Amino acid sequence: MFRKLILVLWIISCNTFADDGSRLWLKYDLLKDTQQRESYIALTKYISFTHDSPIVATAANELQLGFEGLLGKKVSFLRNISGKTGGIVLEVNSDGASVQNLADDGFAINHLKGNIVISAKTPSGVLYGAFELLRNIQTGKNISKIAITNNPKVKIRMLNHWDNANGTVERGYAGSSMWKWTELPFRIDPRYIQYARANASIGINATSINNVNASSRFLTPEYLEKIKAVADVLRPYGISVFISVNFASPRTLGGLKTSDPLDPEVRKWWNDKTKEIHEYIHDFGGFLVKANSEGQPGPQDYGRTHADGANMLAEAMRPFKGIVIWRAFVYKADPNGDRFKEGYDQFKPLDGTFDPKVIVQVKNGPIDFMPREPFHPMFGAFPKTTLGMEFQITQEYLGQSTHLTYLAPMFKECLDSDTYAQGKGSTVARVIDGSLESHQNSLMAGVANTGSDVNWTAHPFNQANWYAFGRLAWDYNLSSEQIAAEWIAMTLTKNKTAQDKINTLMMQSLPVYISYTYPLGTAHMMGEGHHYGPEPWLAKSGRPDWTSVYYHRADSVGLGFDRTGKVSNALSLYKPEVRKQWGNADECDLNYLLWFHHVPWTKKLSTGRTLWDELCFRYYDGVEQVRKMQTNWESLKNEIDTETFENVQGRLKIQEKEALWWRDACVLYFITYAKMPIPAPLVPPARSLDEVKKLVEIYHLR
Ligand code: BDP
Questions:
Q1: All structural domains of the chain with their residue ranges
Q2: What residues does the Glycosyl hydrolase family 67 catalytic domain cover (predicted)?
Q3: Can you tell me the mean pLDDT for 166-187?
Q4: Residue nearest to atom 10 of ligand 1 (CA)
Q5: Between 123-138 and 54-71, two packed helices, what is the crossing angle to 10 degrees?
Q6: Model confidence at 1: pLDDT above 80
Q7: How far is ligand 1, taken at its centre, from the CA of residue 84, in Å?
Q8: Is there a common fold for 22-150 and 514-561+598-701?
């Protein structure tokens, strides 16, 4: 009996493959369904390509790797396939019928003369087509009649790494930097290749490798040599490299007296530096610049404008293909102002003055990557400037690495918002893809969440946010559910019931997170500096707009920031249709209510509850929902790899504890203004406000 038990346990342990998550969604494990496998095998007898390009070779190698894993057979490369059928053909073709409707990175996959042909105008298009075919197989689709024509909506689909030369990552929650600066250029960490594969598989074609709070060190010959080594690895995957630059580099690195963008010597310095960079990286993507923002140097230090600064760099880039990405994330410390308006106000007079090589990169919302923000009022208001989108994939304000928060619905909420710039249907997405205002170039950037952790993103579900960002940059019309479904099938389980359960869990996760952190349109109440956990009472900081009270404006009357005119007229930055949508507290979507209105605690909302009761209800409900998420996850135990299951299980426990922390902190703090009881049947927190305030010290956050 005992021996039998040991045998059973041994068999079970052999079948439970410990998955450390390092392979992301490119697992390529053998498909268990034999019939399905056979059907794919019949269509993938060989891989044929003639185009002599490293990127096409990457596509062919990836298909070979994928087929070997998924189908359990090594598929060989063939050049001459005359008369042969049942294989995969990769074709770069600049003028054939199959590519007529394709953009540069687009691809078509069709059955032609007995083969599955992936055709594109460029090698990169073939690579994206190869990954699409693999995704079809990974997710169990029938490819016997495959017919796809697919173009990316946005041209530059980019990750922004906030990685520092010393190996730390600003707002990174998955270990240290994945770039090993001390080892480069001599040792190439194999993870760079895995990183390139993962990005290419979701259509990402650009990466800026260092923090926007940039060190000039990245422009030294020593570092250019290191960056070149990274660029050489990423190039065959269709990914170009950008560098974040420090605007003061001519002075700090070049030894000049100034970094004034109108100074001829400064201009020469940038021209020479840009040429020098191209000697290392001939296809350099360009510069990313954070200037005159949060203490960073910039053109305003010399009485010049953002356009003066950006255009100077564009001029240096003129002989080359590269571009200049200039961030619009700027705000000054004005206790009587409204940070909401800063980017708009500083940039509005400059619309139409930027060089065509400049893209102005705007965060999705006007404050700072809050879990829910109204779309940035710059979108739709800058017809003469190419605006790019900046999303934050790393979850600085969205639970860092301990909360399960699926971000696709947040990205989409912004992209689907209607600016009404040119009437109904002028969505943010159409501003970004250039179609609304006829811009040639387009950009969507995401602040990366990758780090040195073995599974790249610490929380296994944070991988889904990287995946979703890439998929949406490619096609913002994909639904959040579909993207989640792809990721789950490729990453977590092939069991359909389990897939559906996980999909529901992911789709609920953002509203749940918002319930116990920032319900009803509240924002910016996180712990000072580290941004971890709640600190709604924060009233003093380095700047007024780094406190919490600046944003929530709680007083004895009510809660929220009146932006309809009394305190700030920020709402007037939007088109009349948008103003109408948010301008009346009785009609405003509750999710945005306190972004625009100071609402009395006693006011009855559309839910039938008073503001105070609704606030309490949402905080409490958020915690309950996390508990339900835990129970739902427990029910998946037998369907998920043990290591991943336990990893998520542990993090959900932390999430519950922290949801309670947020709930108690916010409810106990706001009750001091509302002076109303916590409505029954909700049970008042067991701890006092003072006890909750001490948690910041107990958790060693300060
Ligand atoms: C803020 C981050 C800060 C970044 C800044 C930025 O807290 O670390 O440097 O954004 O985007 O949200 O520049």
A1: 22-150, 156-491, 514-561+598-701
A2: 137-456
A3: 98
A4: 368
A5: 10
A6: no
A7: 56
A8: no
